[in-house]
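User: C-alpha cells for Chromosome undetermined SCAF15204, whole genome shotgun sequence, please.
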Amino acid sequence: SNFMYFQKSVLAALYSSEGSVMERHHFAQAIAILNTVGCNIFEKFSRKDYQRMLDLIRDIILATDLAHHLRIFKDLQKMAD
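Assistant: Done. Predicted C-alpha cells:
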C-alpha cells in the first residue's frame, strides 16, 4: 500500500485517503463482479443480510493488509492466552 502511494499510482489516487490501497481495490473489484448480471451469488439475500455480507467481505479483505498484521497478531495472542 505504501509502495502504491509513493509511486503515485492511479490506485493510490483512488483509495489512499482510506489506507489499504490494494485491499480497497480488491473489495471494489468484488463489488463490481457482484454487480455484473448473473454474478451476484447473494441476490436472494434480504437487503439487511446483503449489507451484512458486503461488510463481512470488506472486513475479511481489509484484514489481509500486512500493515495491520502485527496488531492483529497481538490481539489474537491475547485471545489465545
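User: Anything notable?

Assistant: The chain has a mean pLDDT of 85.
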